[in-house]
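With this grant's support, we have settled on a layout for protein records. One resulting record is reproduced below.
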Amino acid sequence: MNRVISLLGRKNLTLKINAFRHASYIFLLTAIKGAIPRPPHAQDSLEEPIIIKEGTLNCTIGDKIATLGAGSVLLILPHEMQTFENTGDGPVTYYVLMLRSKKPMNMERSKQQGHPKIF
């Protein structure tokens, strides 16, 4: 399935969805300068690797803030509050993978590893 939809009624966002097995998804999102694609939120049971394709994205994950550019990778675990804003001079395009594990997640191990991870 591949479709383009309006996200939350905002015309400044393009969202392409490719559905995979069992509620795992990949999104390609493009947001114009100053856009905040979603209000602050946390995923209940999904890990979210994010890859910045082009532009600049300001990311707040829990109490950590980072400004990411093209080629940056971010891993967000379940239950971590997150919000993004395009702080660059032009559009930002990034991939969001939403992955659900077949086994229960070990959140304690994730905390010991220092998540969220920004590369």
Summary: The domain at 2-118 is CATH 2.60.120.10 (Jelly Rolls).
